[in-house]
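User: Protein folding is very new to me. Would you mind checking the protein record under this note? It all follows right here:
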Amino acid sequence: MFTGTATVDSLVSSLAMEPLTVVAGARFGDRQVSTIEFYDPVRGVPRDGAFILVAADLGANCLHDVVYDASRHNAAAVAVKGEIPPLPASVPLTIVRVRSDVSWMDLASALREQLLEHVQRQWSPAEAAADLFAVADTISAAVRAPVTIEDWRSTVLAWSAQQTTADPMRTESIFARTVPGKHLRALEQHGIFERLRTSPDPVFVPQGVAGDGAAARVALAVRGGGSVLGYVWLVVSEPLSARLSQRLTAAGELVAAHLLAAGHDTCGRAQRRRRELAEALIAGGPTRIATAEKLGLSEGPVSVLALGFARSATARGATPSAGICAETADLRRIEDSLAHYLAAVHTSGVAIRSDHMVYGILAWPHRTRQQACAAAQSLAADFAGRTPLPVSCRIAVSPPAQSVSDLSQARIQAEEILRTMCHPASAADAVANLDGTLLQLDLLQLANYADSIALPEFVGALRVLADQDGAQGPLLATLRAYLDSAGRAEVAAETLQLHVNTVRYRMRRIREVCGLDPEDADAMLLAHLQLRVRELRRRNHSAPH
C-alpha cells in the first residue's frame, strides 16, 4: 500500500511560473491531496483529499455552495479563476486562485504529474503479497460457481479450481490469459460493461450474450478509489439468489483489497495515468512527442475522432442546468465505452473527454495516410454500430496527421467537422469525415465570418433582385432552384413543381431585372454562395447560443 505525502502547499509550490495563488485557508495547506479532479455537477464533489478544479463559470452563489460542499466532503483545496466570494475562516480547506491565462487542461496535467511523482516515491511493491488464486477459490466455494478474476482490461489474473464445469469461452480465456476480443465486443454491444461500470451490484449475463456457445454468467465490477480495478466473473446456470449475490458483493471488497495490495492498483492508476497523458497530448505543447511515446502512439499517421451532440429543438428548450448535467453524463458514458472498445480492438488508441465532446486519438503504425484515413472511418462506423449511443450523437473523423507532431491540427479539423455535423442545417450522417462535410464546413465558415463583420445578405445583382422581387419572392426561389440543380431547368422545374418554360421565362426575367448573366460563371458562383450563406446565417440566428 502507499501513503501519499503530497500536500496542497507542496503541489502549489512545485509548479513553475506560479500559476496558483493561495487566497484563503492557508493554514490548511498541509492537508494531503489524494486526487486532482475537475468539478462535475453530475457526479458532485470527489472523494476525500481531492484538489478540485472549478473550470465552469458558476457565479458567486453556486461557487459558494461548491466550496461548502467540498469542505463537507473533506476536500483538500478548491481552485477557481476570477472573483472568489467571501467565506468564513472556519471553512476547513484551501482556496486557490488560478492565473487567468493558465489553461485548465495544462494545469490539471501538471498537478497530476506532481501528485503521481509523490505517490510513486511512496509505493512499496514489497508489501504486495496476496494469492489471488486462493481468493478465487474462496469466492467459488462461497457462491458455488467457477470464478475468474480479471483486471480492467479483461486480462485474466487468477481463476478457481473446478473449471471443467465452465464453457469453451472460459477455457480459451484462461489459456490466453485474456478474454478474446470477439467476446469482449459481444459484451460491449449488449451493454454489459456499461451496466458493470454504473452498477454496484452483480450483473446477470444470459446464455449466448457473450458469443455463440457461451454459458450464462454473473459479473461484478471491483472498485477502488472510485475506479474500476477489475471484474469477478462466474459461470452459472441461472441468476444468483439474493443471498449469493450478497456474498459475491462482499467478496468484491476482498478482491479489491487484494488487487490493491498486490499492486494491481496499477490498473486503476494506469487508467488515470493514461487519461492524464491523453489530456496533455490533446492539449498540445512542446512535450507532445514524449507524451505520445508514453502512450504508445508515436508511430505512424494519427487520426482524431471527435464525438458530440446535435441538439434537438426539445433539448434547446430544456432547462440549461438539466441539459448540461445530462450531456456531461452522456459524454462520460461515451468516453468509457470508447476506451473499452479501443482496448479490445485498437490498442494504439486512447479516449479522453473534454467539456463538450469526447476525443479518440488513433495511431496507425505501418500504415500510409490513405490507409489510415480508411481505417479510422471504418473504426468509427464500427464503434457507432456496436455501441448504444444517443440518437443525437455525431462522430467526426479527422484527416490523418502525418505524425503526432501535427496532432493539434488534426484535433482542430475534427472539431470543425463535428461542429458542421451538429449545425441545425446539416444533413450529415452520424459518422462523417472531411470528404462528406467540406462544402458545408466552408459555407459555415463564410456564414460565421459574414455575421462577424455584419455583411448584408445580398450585394450587387442579388440585392437589386431582392429589392425588386422581395426576400421571399418567386424570382429568388427560382434562381436558388436553378443554381442548386447546376443550371438544369428541367430539374429546377421539378423541384418547384412548375412547367419548365416557366422556369426559363423567370431566368430571362431575372436577367432583365438585375443583369445577372447565367453564362458568367463568377457571377453565378457569387449568387449561389450568397443564397446558401443567407440560409445558414438565418439558421445561426435561430440556433441556441
Summary: The longest strand covers residues 227-235. Residues 8-123 form a domain with the Udp-n-acetylmuramoylalanyl-d-glutamate--2,6- Diaminopimelate Ligase; Chain: A, domain 1 fold (CATH 3.40.1390.20).
